[in-house]
Amino acid sequence: xxxxxxxxxxxxxxxxxxxxxxxxxxxxxxxxxxxxxxxxxxxxxxxxxxxxxxxxxxxxxxxxxxxxxxxxxxxxxxxxxxxxxxxxxxxxxxxxxxxxxxxxxxxxxxxxxxxxxxxxxxxxxxxxxxxxxxxxxxxxxxxxxxxxxxxxxxxxxxxxxxxxxxxxxxxxxxxxxxxxxxxxxxxxxxxxxxxxxxxxxxxxxxxxxxxxxxxxxxxxxxxxxxxxxxxxxxxxxxxxxxxxxxxxxxxxxxxxxxxxxxxxxxxxxxxxxxxxxxxxxxxxxxxxxxxxxxxxxxxxxxxxxxxxx
Amino acid sequence: xxxxxxxxxxxxxxxxxxxxxxxxxxxxxxxxxxxxxxxxxxxxxxxxxxxxxxxxxxxxxxxxxxxxxxxxxxxxxxxxxxxxxxxxxxxxxxxxxxxxxxxxxxxxxxxxxxxxxxxxxxxxxxxxxxxxxxxxxxxxxxxxxxxxxxxxxxxxxxxxxxxxxxxxxxxxxxxxxxxxxxxxxxxxxxxxxxxxxxxxxxxxxxxxxxxxxxxxxxxxxxxxxxxxxxxxxxxxxxxxxxxxxxxxxxxxxxx
Lengths: 309, 255
Known about the structure:
The complex is a heterodimer of chains A (309) and B (255). With 309 residues, chain A is α/β, with parallel strands linked by helices. Chain A has helices spanning 40-47, 69-75, 91-101, 106-119, 135-149, 165-180, 192-198, 216-221, 237-245, 269-282, 297-305, and strands spanning 2-11, 14-24, 29-33, 55-60, 63-64, 76-79, 153-157, 184-189, 201-206, 209-214, 227-234, 250-256, 261-266, 286-293. In chain A, the strands form three sheets. In chain A, strands 6-7-8-3-9-10 form a six-stranded mixed beta sheet, sandwiched between helices. Chain A has a four-stranded antiparallel beta sheet with strand order 2-1-4-5, covered by helices on one side. A four-stranded antiparallel beta sheet of chain A has the order 12-13-11-14, with helices on one face. Chain B has one domain (3-251).
């Protein structure tokens, strides 16, 4: 179990993480969702004892990350957002270095490296220098470190950035199998589909603060019930907002980027859409496009933070 | 050795061999320098000026120290790059103690230096009277000196955050220490003002030790003073380097 208690990190005058209190249970995949600069990576760096918290504590299996950092590090592994490989060494040698540092027995090391590289379609590239790999291949090697290590706590920071669709699915499956083997997984991502597919629970970070926490389903339940309508309008937005806000069944309206795009949370799109269209046309506004959809995690994020990912 | 330090050293040795051609080429330049430059000057430099050796012998042994200087001092450049590329963060996330990382980098740099200098001992063995025992003793002294050089390299590399400044500082310190030492020229040939610097320069004492220890002579006197200066240099600068490195690690490079 991982417990964050009032964790704060301040860089000079910038508050990167503010009073984060959170518990991650054993053998669950916990998604940390947030845009760039939300504090995800800083939180993970403190968990790995790379950065010292300004205040607050982190405990991994009741071990304090500050005072028992070495013991904590034997329990965890991190796949960094930007792949960190020794460009002068081959793919295989990079993974061997990681396995040796994590004290994997020699036989197990060889076997796992071969199995993981084969799974990720990288076995043929094992003798290539890491510096010569494409961005996607480097990312796969970065993820492969944890698949070889199989740590009790596996931390993935944007594990599928730069990856093609096939590789993404493979990495997802492998992360799920880590969880099935008993590992606790922390997944920092700003990809909604990834968070929704993998996470048992989610924490939404915005400007260093945890603004919501729960299962994807429970977070969606926090949204106003009903449908979501996105409308792109040409004309004076303010008058549209005034009129639509007065409609009984419109629960929330959010202005999006690009300008003149509105997201409306309504009870039933079928019954409300004709009235909305009529109102907009009456006001002399031109409707360029309309999209009706069910609420997604993106809406959850927007709901809690007021911004889109 | 602690497992963590062993892993760090193994990486330094592996990466050293990835640059095998670079090291080999540098050694060829040193050999050519010795064979051509030192051979020609040998006739012009009197034996008394170079401690009873010929200038060719003097230069060949001095070149070993220059060679190890570049190889070990440059571990600082590697540490700098580890910091800039995020590899240091990665190292710190591994189940390796901070001390293992520091000890590993210093040992790794020293072993790199010895590996670089080994082929030059073959040339030295051809040019000067020596024995296996002399060579082993000489390597021992060089290893201690290399530990100090690693500390110096790490300290200077981590003192600056800008790549160009780091490179300039690196070149300045290397050239200043090598050129103001007795590695390549006899002290009697230097102007008086430079002799002061030469006597304060640890490279001078390392070079003097290597020459005394490597050359076999039945009347040889153990260079205790020179070696103590080398040991003191390695201890002080090695500790400063470790302190600078650990301070950076504890502070966290992202701070």
